[in-house]
User: Which sequence fits this backbone?
């Protein structure tokens, strides 16, 4: 699903953001990416959804190699991902349903399929009743659920979440995390960056810990990266 | 494409102030261009009217046979540069002189004024060289005594026309360029106002073409609206000038439609540049 091989990323400022990062995430896994601010968590995620390209090493994602991926293929790749951010990134002048529909519209889906699909995912995140509310009428937790619904609507193989609970209170955090776990239970791989250590410890899920641009701990190391798991990424 | 049209048009509702501002800006820059066009058009027409009077007159020797004259007239009519030939007999010349110079009526006696051939030249043949060429051919008829065509005047007119064309072209290009820059920055504002939306579109997998389409439609519609407003403003100015200053010519319907379409094209072009630039910058 995701395989990082000795990946390095140096931004234009010249300082390396990440160095020598290698890990492998198999299909259906749920992994946390932890570490203090500036450790390189967001860079890892950006490399996954190809907002950034690695300066060294290789990122393989859904069978595509960062070495060979052309700019034209990026949109199709992103349609198979769901991306969730700390700041939700909803369009303020559109309703919850329109925000979700947006992700389907860009793929050229027909109007007839969009409506029912949007309602189905909004139902899944528990917001069917608020389909016509605009973001400012929703709580932070609800806005993040809309964002998750938007990420889900294209039936992604992988959800990338960058501090999705960073702006939420404890109760909303719990709700969003439960929702992501529920989505994972349906077979979708989830990689979630967070610095909420309490959440990480309580979950007992696989954890990748970053520090100063390096991967310093991987609770799933050895389990993943086996040849058998490697064949799965061509899914 | 359906969606692109909807999104393009919805932008007017989502950002009415900015949209109105864009349309106004486009309208005024096109209005300036339209006023310039009006001046150029009238100047050109005036020069053309003067140009219609470029004429070569060949005076015919006394005692030339009328048959020879009419053969010559038919001959000259066939010259490609010639728009029309008139034969003025001695009697007609006298008649005309008496009419035009009434107070000297008694001075003119029959036979005093020679017969002549008057040659008017086509629009493409009014340069000094072309006029001289026709004059030379005319002089070759042996019954032609003398040729007159106001050589100096033709040269002056020609120079004036050349200057007017060059200045018109330079000013027109400058105006068009200024309009494009203004329209481009207005559209860029609209693009920047929706930077967040563009970012989200990209993250959910929109292609650049998909992102661009609504902006091109929006720019085109703004350009067309701006063109219509500009035409209305130019029309109003024209009417005001017509009433209070001087009667002038206005654009024909084809030119007016072309102007509006040019506004639309300018809007599309400016949008394409603005969005393209933005998409490159934020990749």
Assistant:
């Amino acid at each position: 699903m995701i395989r990082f091989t000795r990946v390095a990323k140096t931004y234009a400022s010249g300082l390396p953001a990440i160095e020598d990062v290698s890990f492998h995430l198999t299909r259906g896994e749920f992994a946390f990416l932890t570490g203090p601010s500036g450790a390189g968590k967001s860079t890892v995620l950006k490399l996954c959804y190809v907002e950034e390209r690695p300066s060294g090493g290789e990122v393989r994602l859904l069978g595509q190699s960062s070495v060979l991926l052309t700019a034209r293929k990026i949109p199709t790749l992103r349609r198979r991902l769901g991306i969730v951010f700390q700041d939700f990134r909803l369009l303020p002048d559109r309703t919850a349903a329109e925000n979700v529909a947006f992700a389907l519209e860009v793929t050229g889906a027909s109007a007839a399929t969009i409506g029912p699909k949007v309602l189905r995912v909004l139902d899944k995140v528990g917001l069917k009743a608020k389909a016509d509310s605009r973001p400012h009428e929703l709580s932070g937790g609800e806005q993040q659920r809309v964002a998750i619904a938007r990420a889900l609507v294209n039936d992604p193989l992988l959800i990338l979440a960058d501090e999705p609970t960073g702006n939420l209170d404890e109760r909303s955090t719990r709700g969003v995390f439960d929702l992501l776990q529920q989505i994972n239970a349906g077979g979708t791989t989830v990689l979630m960056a967070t610095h909420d250590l309490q959440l990480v410890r309580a979950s007992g899920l696989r954890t990748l810990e970053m520090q100063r641009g390096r991967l310093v701990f991987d609770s799933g190391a050895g389990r993943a990266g086996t040849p058998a798991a490697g064949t799965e990424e061509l899914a | 494409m359906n969606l692109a049209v909807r999104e393009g048009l919805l932008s007017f509702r989502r950002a009415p102030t900015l949209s109105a501002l864009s349309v106004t800006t486009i309208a005024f820059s096109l209005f300036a261009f339209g006023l310039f066009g009006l001046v150029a058009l009238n100047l050109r027409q005036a020069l053309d009217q003067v140009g219609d009077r470029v004429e070569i007159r060949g005076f015919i020797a006394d005692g030339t046979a009328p048959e020879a004259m009419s053969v010559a007239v038919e001959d000259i009519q066939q010259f490609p540069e010639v728009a029309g030939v008139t034969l003025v007999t001695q009697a007609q010349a006298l008649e005309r002189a008496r009419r035009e110079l009434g107070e000297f009526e008694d001075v003119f006696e029959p036979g005093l004024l020679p017969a002549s051939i008057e040659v008017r030249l086509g629009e493409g043949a009014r340069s000094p060289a072309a006029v001289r060429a026709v004059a030379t051919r005319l002089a070759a008829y042996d019954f032609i005594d003398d040729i007159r065509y106001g050589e100096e005047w033709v040269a002056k007119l020609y120079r004036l026309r050349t200057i007017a064309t060059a200045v018109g072209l330079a000013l027109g290009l400058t105006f068009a360029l200024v309009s494009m820059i203004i329209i481009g920055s207005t559209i860029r504002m609209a693009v920047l106002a929706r930077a967040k939306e563009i970012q989200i579109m990209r993250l959910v997998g929109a292609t650049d073409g998909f992102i661009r389409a609504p902006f091109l439609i929006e720019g085109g519609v703004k350009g067309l609206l701006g063109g219509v407003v500009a035409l209305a403003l130019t029309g109003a100015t024209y009417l005001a000038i017509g009433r209070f200053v001087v009667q002038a010519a206005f654009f024909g319907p084809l030119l007016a439609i072309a102007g509006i379409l040019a506004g639309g094209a300018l809007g599309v072009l400016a949008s394409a540049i603005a969005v393209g630039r933005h998409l490159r910058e934020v990749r």
Remarks:
- Chain B touches chain A at residues 3, 14, 196-197, 199-207, 210, 283 (CB under 8 Å).
- The beta strands of chain B are 55-60, 82-88, 116-121, 144-148.
